[in-house]
Amino acid sequence: MNILIIGGGGVVGQKLAASLATRGLLRGQPISRLVLADVVDPAPLAAPFEVQTTTCDIADPASVASVVTQDTQVIYLLAAIVSAHAEEDFEAGWRINMMGTLNVLERARTLGTKPVVIFTSSIAVYGGEVPDPIVDHTFLNPQTSYGAQKAVGELLINDYSRKGFVDGRGFRLPTISVRPGKPNRAASSFMSSILREPLNGQEAICPVDDDFPHYYLSPRKCVENLIKGAEIPEADLGQNRCMMMPGRMWTIRQLIDAMTAVAGPEPARLIKWEAQPDIQRIVKGWRFDMRPEKAIKLGLEADDSFEDNIRYYLEDDKPAP
Amino acid sequence: MNILIIGGGGVVGQKLAASLATRGLLRGQPISRLVLADVVDPAPLAAPFEVQTTTCDIADPASVASVVTQDTQVIYLLAAIVSAHAEEDFEAGWRINMMGTLNVLERARTLGTKPVVIFTSSIAVYGGEVPDPIVDHTFLNPQTSYGAQKAVGELLINDYSRKGFVDGRGFRLPTISVRPGKPNRAASSFMSSILREPLNGQEAICPVDDDFPHYYLSPRKCVENLIKGAEIPEADLGQNRCMMMPGRMWTIRQLIDAMTAVAGPEPARLIKWEAQPDIQRIVKGWRFDMRPEKAIKLGLEADDSFEDNIRYYLEDDKPAP
After folding, report:
1. What is the pLDDT of residues A120-152, one digit of tens each?
2. CA–CA min distance B135, chain A (Å)
3. Which of A100, A111, B19, B292 is the most buried (most CB within 10 A)?
4. Model pLDDT for residues B107-144, shown as the tens digit of each residue
5. What's the CATH number for A187-214+248-286+304-316?
6. Separation CA A150–CA A168 (nearest Å)
7. In this protein, which residues make up the domain named NAD-dependent epimerase/dehydratase (chains A, B) (predicted)?
8. Which residues in chain B have their CB less than 8 angstroms from residue A152's CB?
């Protein structure tokens, strides 16, 4: 089994690669090669199979052709310009998030190899005048360019799959928390920072009130779901291959209480509260009352409690002191 | 008021142009120029204002730039590769229907003039596992490339409008019947042919059973709605500028009965019944139980009866014997 992760240098890409290295199998077959591609050369990985790292600009069809090859059987398409970045740089967002997705699908179509393509969409596809709860047949009404680009990606994944050019599956990721590493340009970045930095003994800023509700998933469960997502039998996907990935709704207060329950009262004292209207304008348009019935039926899972998310961070990611 | 109709050589484009010529006004202002652009030079038009006809390939940004100019205030974007054609020619469908729409919007963004853009989407955006009735917040789940391309166009119209680059509005057209002229490559083409040809004394083939239900609008009402659609105040469009255009559900039997009620029993005898699985596969995935509440609230209208549709054809379109 030859696997390509586009966005293989990112947090989810690296964790997915590590999990594949541990498993050694995907879709019931031994993994023979894993290619990690990203805009900057991804970190290498120890694995019981061949691992290549390479740069790739998905906005460039020739660059895509260099990583999506005749023997590529599974493509994880995780690369994206994230939400606040796509809102600032309109052109880059459409070029990378829409045209980049199109380039990958066109390359697969041209090859005629029908690879499995796992596409990460986002709950940012929801917004505007749609009633709660968000169910599997709720209208995608994004109120950011990032959300619009992800919704276009879903339509492309579905149509290229319907025509048999790829075996696509898309998953609308909840906000991933606790996300390790540095803050990024996602508007949701603070939803990890306010936990990660205090757990590392550093201050962090919370730009919203503590009753702000949102929909979360741990990186560990996200990776498990992405692997399951590749393994769902094609026939079970029905007439829409894109679905919510399960998560859970918690308020900022519940996140902080979970951190305190696991790590004691000190970290919470490092959170500074500072309203940021630009961030609020984006994140308050997002939805949080989700019913991901299709994904749950297909075996995907949310976390059991946010205490788990905190523990996963401490076990998997907290830098050694 | 300078108006551009892209797709100005088509049935709807020509009727829209004629209606604008009669009115002389749009959005409360006198029309000073109307440009009709299409892949082949559109038929000219007598009007109390300047009318230009020109060719335009919307897949080519330079060609789009030649018709969308600094003084273009209203753009009707009607041009498309139709359903069965887009199903046969996958590349042409995406190139014209997605990239063509993108080219028009990008041209407007570059000019910085914020034209009003009226985009014709289609009820082909609906399909698959979504419950009836279809309401304003029903998931767009197209089961044809044409439907997918129209759904992408809606996302583009919404995001370019949200950013203030255009004042976009999109309307999901019901099947237009009785459509004058020749059959086209839309899978729905027979839904006019089985009335138009018999009303003109010619035979026609019906490829589905007479209990096949579908959602219809007359060309006359469609044009009225497209004019109203340009005139809706921007503030009334809310957080999703695309909506169903009102129509009504009738079965093939009801269409034929209406024809008989208006034109006597002879025309119906000219219909030959001949099942066509390729056409059935496309049209049976379409939806017909629609509740276009938003559009109705904004003043758009369906036909009162299919007898009206038959009468409109006889009054507006039937060729002289």
Report:
1. 999 999 999 889 999 999 999 999 999 999 999
2. 10
3. A100
4. 999 999 999 999 999 999 999 988 999 999 999 999 99
5. 3.90.25.10
6. 14
7. 3-202
8. 152, 155-156
